[in-house]
Amino acid sequence: EAVLGVAEAQKAIQAMLDEALKEPDRPVAMAIVDNQGKLIAYARMDRCRLLPQQLAFKKAYTAAVMRSDTAAVAERFKSTGRSISEFGDPNMVAVQGGVTIQRPGDQAFLGGVGVSGLRAEEDEAMARLGIQAMGL
Description:
The protein is built from 4 helices and 4 strands.
């Protein structure tokens, strides 16, 4: 089975932090989980509010367990008029900023990255930057 290692996760966290620290007055939180939604790496900037700290993990978790970026998950629920809360999993959120990690080549699902604290599209862009930095 494909496994996402802590070394890749740390590379992603470092790349995202380096980018985020260019704007220290806009603190973010970031989380990386494996394909079961279990936390591998987490970081938050100083003075990051509580909600983004919780959402970063939930976005990563949702991307991993739904095998879909959270922007697409949110759109899918909106279009069907249903709520993600119907799953009964308090860690699932339909909010942009969670991105799946897939291995190039066979597209095996390795996990998810979640970023929270900026505008939704900026959160997603930062998550993608982290995935690039993993060098998979």
